[in-house]
Amino acid sequence: MKRRSLLAGFLCVGIFVAGAGQASAHGLAGKRFFPSTLAIDDPFVADELSLPSVFHLKTPAKRDEPATRETEVSGEFSKRITRDLGLSLEGELVHLDPDRKPSQTGFGNLEVGLKYQFFKSEAHETILSLALGWEVGGTGRKAVEAESFNVVKPALFFGKGFGDLPDGLLYLKPLAVTGIVGAKIPTRSRTKTVKIEFDADTGEFEVETEIERHPNIFQWGFVVEYSIQYLQSFVKDVGLPAPFNRLIPLVELTFETPLDRGQSGRTVGTVNPGIIWAGKFFQIGVEAVFPINERTGKNVGVRAMLHFFLDDLFPKSLGRPLFGN
Question: Which CATH class is domain 2-186+214-313?
């Protein structure tokens, strides 16, 4: 019931401001506006704030760990240093509710990122960016599975609109694809845990050693989206009124494939169909989360995000690059 009320609140905000103007300079390549998607990061550099982002999913049992209902409420602030170079800070509050065990709440590790947008084609509605993320180990609470070691995350982000298709494929022009090809590289290959327990029957202490291996991970995914605003502005006005004229239906597919340390090839991932409403100053989005296999889980989750375009909200102050215009 609480999750339904939260999602209804997101949608009501969007309908209330449906008369807002068209999206401005944020995420543009030619006539193409790329929204900030929920599961995969943006292919562009911008001044923006995601707050809150909400995620909920029941994860499957792992070895001696029970199935767990996981809820995350996170925020991310991104700031342009120059026109094409940006810095981001991200944090999250995590609530874990395992079966037959006490629930735990705490902050996850802080994440810091740099992103450089090195290519943009206005004519072909294309953006390419390189990014380097750093999950700062030990900044979160161990009880909510925040690791004590760092994780380095290099990535390539891309965005491609199909407005340059021939007129014979007119209704495919509102389509766009964005995505990521990257890695998660832990700075520690394994964690060794020693547990000492007293056996009342034998009167002796028992020592148990557990070793958890941390593999290098290939991270990949893509988003397929269809812009109703692009359709009505640049292809054909089909007469959809506000707020429906600013909707962007989309499907995000996210995958992680371990490469070594005993977990090679054990891919996990989700398929995330949803919808975004984008105005001039902010956007809202809601997605369902479908696991792709039993390793990922069996239950359907939900993800929602309220996202502010700071470069459009504050174009002469907070929304400007620190150096250059």
Answer: mainly beta
Instruction: Report helix, strand or coil for 222.
Output: strand
Dist. CA 265–CA 257, nearest whole Å: 6
Q: Are 281 and 309 in contact (CB under 8 A)?
A: yes
Distance CA 131, CA 127 (A): 13
With vertex at residue 76, the alpha carbon angle to CA 71 and CA 78, rounded to the nearest 5 degrees, is: 165
* Local structure of 278: helix, strand or coil: strand
**Rounded Cα distance, 319 and 311, in Å:** 4
Cα distance between residue 199 and residue 231, in whole Å: 70
Contact 174, 227 (CB under 8 A): yes
Q: Report pTM.
A: 0.87
Nearest CA to 48 among 37, 58, 56, 39? Answer: 37
On whether the CB atoms of residues 126 and 117 are closer than 8 A, the answer is: no
Tokens representing 149?
A: 């070691």
| Structure letter (DSSP) for residue 209 | E
Which has the closest alpha carbon to 48: 312, 280, 309, 283? 309
Cα–Cα distance measured from residue 308 to residue 283, given in angstroms and rounded to the nearest whole number: 7
Task: Split the chain (325 residues) into runs of 10 and give each run's mean pLDDT.
Answer: 42 38 66 96 96 94 84 97 97 94 95 98 97 97 93 98 96 98 95 75 74 94 97 95 96 97 92 97 97 91 97 92 86
How high is the pLDDT of residue 23?
A: 38
Give domain limits for the chain.
Answer: 2-186+214-313
Task: Give the position of tokens 């202490």.
Answer: 205
Identify the bridge partners of residue 97 per DSSP, sorted by sequence position. 69
Backbone angles phi, psi at 174, to 5 degrees: -70, -5
Query: In angstroms, how far is CA 66 from the centroid of its own chain?
Result: 26
